[in-house]
Structures are given as C-alpha cells and as structure tokens.
Sequence to fold (195 residues):
Amino acid sequence: MKNIVGIICEYDPFHRGHARQFSLIRAQLPDALIVCLMSGCFTQRGMPALFSPAFRAKAALEAGADIVLELPTIAAVRDAENFALGGVGIFNRLGFISQLSFGTENPDLSLLGQIAHLLEHPDAVFQTALQQSLAQGKPFAAALGQADTAAVVSKPNNILAICYLRALDRLQSSILPLPVKRDGSYHSASLSDAV
Fold:
C-alpha cells in the first residue's frame, strides 16, 4: 500500500520550512503522496489570510504537494485542539491517509505521546494537581508540573503536535504520526539557513 501523508496547514505564506517538511517526508518515504489540508480565506487566529487560497495552494503544489484540499472555516479558525481535531477528523474520514506529518520543536514522539495521553485521559491525581496549580495563578505549561513537560508545552508547534496526537487518540485513528523537527527560533532577529 502506498504511503499517503497528510499535512494540516495554513501556508500563509508558504516558506522554506514547509518545503523542508516535504523534503524530509520524501527522504523517509520516497514513494509517498503528500495531501495538504489547508485553511481557506481565514487562518487559525480568525484573521483573513494574507494570500488567497489559490495562491497558497499553487505554492504548495509547486513545492511538491500532490494535492491540496481546503480545511473548512469551522475548523480552520478554532483553537489548537479543535483545529487539530477538525483536520484529523477529515483525514480519518477520507480513509486513505496513512501518516500525519506535523512540525514540532521536540520530535520525541514518546514524550509528546505521553503528554497527549495524559491530557486526553487525565486521572484524578493529575486533574487535582492541575486545578490546584491553575488556581494558584500558574500558567498552563507550568501547572503541568515537571520542568521537561512544561518546557515542551510552552512551544507553539509542540502544543499543536500534542493536539494532533490527542485527536488521533480520541478518534481511535489508524493514521500514524510522522513528526518533523522544526529548527530555528520564532524570535530570531536574523535570517539563517535553519527553518
């Protein structure tokens, strides 16, 4: 069976990091088809996209995507958890996506999976500790407890990666996660080769 890799994306704009993701997917799975599920006229923050869906889709296709589908606005403008759930739900219903690729600052799938499982299936001890920490005014990442966990959930791509893993778990999907390590810093003052 051919590998068909799904990517839930915005591409506003499409940049070198996105092209790098395609390259890394092809390096791991040379025969893979890449299916992008891209937001339309509005992005996850609820803002109008800078570029039209047609322009962004063309950029993705020229960079190596095999097909670009539109993520419905009802999912595209939601918080990370529901953005991920909407996209994964569509891929799951399509029935032919074998892997879900996503960027993450920490590609340790075991750690990301543990956090996702704990958030998706919290036990009483975890819930109590989390509620107490939040009541003390701690930010969510710090309220999760351990320093390594807090560091992981404080990074934007890690947060979305965990949401993708939660969605796969919640939907009992057979789609396999395929994380791609994101290099570089969101707050860098200069351009570099890292993306």
